[in-house]
C-alpha cells in the first residue's frame, strides 16, 4: 500500500529508475512513498530536490517520533485505499459503458428489422397501388411492424425512466393463478 524507505537506500542516480517505474503504473495509481531523511543538515532543499520527480512523497526528518511515523503511514495507507476505491469505481463505470453499448447495438438491430419491413412494403405499395388485395396485405404488415416499433420505443422509455429513478414500484401480494 505504501513504501517506507530511508534516504540512504535510494541513491540519487537510481531515482530516475524509481520515477520511471512509478510512471508505468495505471492512471488511478499513485503509490505513496515515505522517505526517512538523514538527520537535519544545512541545505536541506538540495537533499530533497532529487525526490521531486516522484509523485506522492512524504519526507520525514530523523530522528522522528513514533507517533509521527504511525500517523504518516496511516494517512498514506488511507490515500492508497481511496485509490483502490477509485479503481473499482472506474471498473464499474467501464462495465456500465460496455453494457450500454451492447444495449444500443441490440436496440439498433431490433429497430432496424421492423423498419426494413416497413420500408420494403412502402416501396411495394408505391409500385402496385392499383392492387386492392395486395394493398390490404401491405397495410396489415406495415401496421404490425409499426406496432413493434412503437413497443420498442415504449420499452426504451421505460428503461430510461427506471435508470433515472422516475419509476416507483408498488409492492403487493399477487394471485398468480388469477393473472
Structure characterization notes:
This protein is mainly α and 179 residues long. Helix content is 60%, strand content 8%. It is built from four helices and three strands. The chain has a three-stranded parallel β-sheet with strand order 1-2-3, with helices on one face. Helix 1 links the parallel strand 1 (3-6) and strand 2. Helix 3 (66-127) runs antiparallel to helix 4 (132-163). The protein starts with a strand and ends in a 16-residue tail after the last helix. The mean pLDDT is 84.
Key structural traits:
single chain; 179 residues; mainly alpha; three-stranded parallel sheet; 8% strand
What is the general shape?
elongated
Are there runs of 5+ residues with pLDDT below 50, and where? none
What strand order characterises the main sheet? 1-2-3
- Structural class category: mainly alpha
Helical content band: 55-70%
Number of alpha- plus pi-helical segments: 4
The fraction of residues assigned to DSSP E strands is: 5-15%
The average pLDDT value, as a whole number, equals 84
Rg over CA atoms, rounded to whole Å, is: 33 Å
What order do the SSEs take from the amino end to the carboxyl end, as H and E?
Answer: EHEHEHH
Multimeric state: single chain
DSSP summary, beta strand count: 3
Biggest pleated sheet = 3 strands, parallel
Terminal CA distance reads 56 Å
Amino acid at each position: 500500500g505504501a513504501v517506507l524507505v530511508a534516504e540512504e537506500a535510494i541513491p540519487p542516480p537510481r531515482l530516475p529508475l524509481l520515477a520511471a517505474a512509478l510512471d508505468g503504473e495505471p492512471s488511478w495509481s499513485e503509490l505513496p512513498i515515505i522517505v526517512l531523511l538523514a538527520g537535519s543538515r544545512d541545505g536541506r532543499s538540495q537533499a530533497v530536490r532529487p525526490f521531486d520527480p516522484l509523485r506522492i512523497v512524504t519526507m520525514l526528518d530523523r530522528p522522528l517520533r513514533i507517533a509521527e511515523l504511525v500517523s504518516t503511514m496511516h494517512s498514506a495507507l488511507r490515500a492508497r485505499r481511496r485509490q483502490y476505491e477509485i479503481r473499482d469505481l472506474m471498473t464499474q463505470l467501464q462495465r456500465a459503458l460496455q453494457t450500454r453499448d451492447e444495449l444500443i447495438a441490440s436496440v439498433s438491430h431490433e429497430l432496424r428489422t421492423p423498419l426494413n419491413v416497413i420500408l420494403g412494403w412502402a416501396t411495394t405499395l408505391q409500385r402496385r397501388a392499383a392492387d386492392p388485395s395486395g394493398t390490404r396485405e401491405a397495410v396489415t404488415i406495415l401496421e404490425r411492424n409499426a406496432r413493434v416499433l412503437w413497443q420498442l420505443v415504449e420499452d426504451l422509455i421505460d428503461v430510461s425512466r427506471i435508470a433515472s429513478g422516475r419509476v416507483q414500484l408498488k409492492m403487493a401480494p399477487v394471485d398468480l393463478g388469477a393473472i
